[in-house]
């Protein structure tokens, strides 16, 4: 699914992936024995958490027919149409620190988050 503007440039909502996040995801894909040329990371939004919505991630063998597919640093990211409206313009990053390590979504559409940062509201 892609929208073309009059001048031919791609105008679909973007999901960016940092190099650190792509490297970590590639490592995990490899550990799962998945072909990163076909398989990818599914990024989605689900109901839940104290703020109403939460992010979900999993590896899928291949995209669904109606997914938007992004590719950054060789990592394929699959986003379903319902989730895309909540996370368009987001950046997927990987953070490591003293208290936690993991993937983090920087979402410009968020108007509030819960205290733990696991759920959000748009």
Automatic annotation (TrEMBL):
Give GO terms: molecular function aspect only.
2 iron, 2 sulfur cluster binding; 4 iron, 4 sulfur cluster binding; iron ion binding
**Which InterPro entries does the UniProt record give?**
ATAP, ATAP_core_dom, FeS_cluster_insertion_CS, HesB-like_dom_sf
Boundaries of each Core domain copy?
Answer: 15-118
Pfam families cross-referenced by the UniProt entry: Fe-S_biosyn
List the Gene3D superfamilies hit by this protein, alphabetically. HesB-like domain
What are the GO BP annotations of this UniProt entry?
iron-sulfur cluster assembly
Domain of life, per lineage: Archaea
Q: Which PROSITE patterns match?
A: HESB
Q: Protein name, please?
A: Iron-sulfur cluster assembly protein
Organism, by scientific name, is Halostagnicola kamekurae
Which lineage ranks, top first, belong to the organism behind this chain? Archaea, Methanobacteriati, Methanobacteriota, Stenosarchaea group, Halobacteria
């Amino acid at each position: 699914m892609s929208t073309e503007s009059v001048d031919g440039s791609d105008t679909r909502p973007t999901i960016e992936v940092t190099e650190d996040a792509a490297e970590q995801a590639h490592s995990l894909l490899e550990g799962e024995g998945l072909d990163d040329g076909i398989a990818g990371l599914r990024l989605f939004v689900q109901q839940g958490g104290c703020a109403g919505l939460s992010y979900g991630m999993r590896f899928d063998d291949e995209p669904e027919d109606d997914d938007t597919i992004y590719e950054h640093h060789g990592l394929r990211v699959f986003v379903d149409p319902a989730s895309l409206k909540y996370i368009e313009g987001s950046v997927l990053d990987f953070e490591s620190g003293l208290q936690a390590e993991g993937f983090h979504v920087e979402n410009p559409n968020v108007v509030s988050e819960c205290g733990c940062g696991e759920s959000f509201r748009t």
